[in-house]
Write a structure and sequence with these properties.
mainly alpha, 0% strand, membrane
Length: 316
């Protein structure tokens, strides 16, 4: 699909007098090719998912979740989290809205876990960097982690760890507005502009670092120190927590590291943790839930991500 971009990058590198397979030439080729490929697929995937998301405003999402009891609710919440991704700044109003309308705590957390893990921009970049198989694994893993995490939190019966004032809030019934097709397309296009405007710099920086790794770091170094090390998955998960703000920039870096021998599971753990274990989200959630529940949320999600990382390192 992107052979033309690969050939274009080769022409540019050779025109500059560099070998596209060696050192700086390989780094520059990686940078040019990945920049073209990722930005195009980002535009396409963000547009498609944003269009789908226009059918699921928060009010409609809440109404849907109210109808599904038990583990079915956790599954539905995780599935809705895929098409309604949110940033950390929206975690508090979403949490309050779900709890206020009677959505169970465990179901609410299934949504809160999956929604940031599986977002359209990350899916588009994974599709561009690794192909359909890895991108699909990423989505399925995010859904499973959300379902399992939400079920466990629900079993712990931690409703008393929600700040009392949350249960007393009466947000009222929100009207679900009808949207025309033109408005949906306009929403999708505006969301594309907004997301790319916010992430393009992180993406370019990540591609640049990935290019340096691709061209300058020997594969033997990665395979010796990171390839099959037992501690790389938890280390990658922990390191990812403070990197939320440039999560998308980690994907090109992961692509380069995998190309040098890093385990796919380790890379997946790193990428999922950058969004699911966000420090900003934890700080904001403290406004509505107590530290014990925040710790439980982070611990369960981190363990699920690490399990996923080990699993895919073994089977792939």
């Amino acid at each position: 699909m992107f052979q033309w971009a690969h050939d274009l990058a080769t022409i540019v590198v050779e025109w500059l007098g560099l070998n596209p397979e060696l050192s700086w030439g390989a780094s520059l080729h990686f940078f040019i090719y990945d920049t073209i490929k990722i930005l195009i697929l980002l535009f396409i995937m963000i547009f498609i998912v944003s269009y789908i998301r226009s059918y699921f405003p928060p009010e409609k999402t809440k109404k849907i979740l109210e109808k599904f009891p038990g583990i079915t609710g956790n599954i539905m919440a995780s599935l809705l989290g895929v098409v309604t991704p949110f940033c950390s700044c929206s975690s508090v109003p979403i949490f309050i809205g779900f709890i206020e309308t009677g959505v169970p705590l465990g179901v609410t957390f299934s949504f809160l876990i999956t929604s940031p893990i599986v977002n359209e921009a990350a899916f588009g970049m994974l599709l561009a960097s690794f192909g359909w198989q890895v991108a699909t694994i990423y989505v399925i893993s995010g859904i499973v982690i959300g379902v399992v995490g939400g079920v466990i939190i629900g079993k712990f019966k931690m409703e008393n760890q929600v700040e009392e004032y949350v249960y007393n809030i009466q947000m009222g019934e929100s009207q679900i507005e009808k949207t025309t097709q033109n408005e949906r397309f306009s929403f999708a296009y505006e969301n594309v502009k907004d997301v790319i405007k916010r992430v393009w710099l992180f993406v370019i920086i990540g591609i640049g670092i990935g290019g340096l790794i691709h061209g300058k770091i020997p594969a033997e170094f990665i395979t010796t120190y990171l390839g099959n090390n037992l501690f790389t998955v938890p280390l990658a998960t922990v390191i990812a927590v403070p990197l939320y703000s440039n999560a998308l920039g980690t994907i090109p870096i992961a692509e380069a590291l995998i190309g040098k021998g890093l385990g796919l599971g380790t890379a997946l753990a790193f990428m999922m943790a950058t969004t699911a274990l966000s420090l900003p989200e934890g700080i904001l959630l403290r406004k509505v839930i107590k530290p014990k529940l925040i710790f439980t949320f982070f611990a369960i999600t981190a363990l699920a991500i690490m399990f996923t990382g080990y699993l895919f390192n073994i089977i792939l």
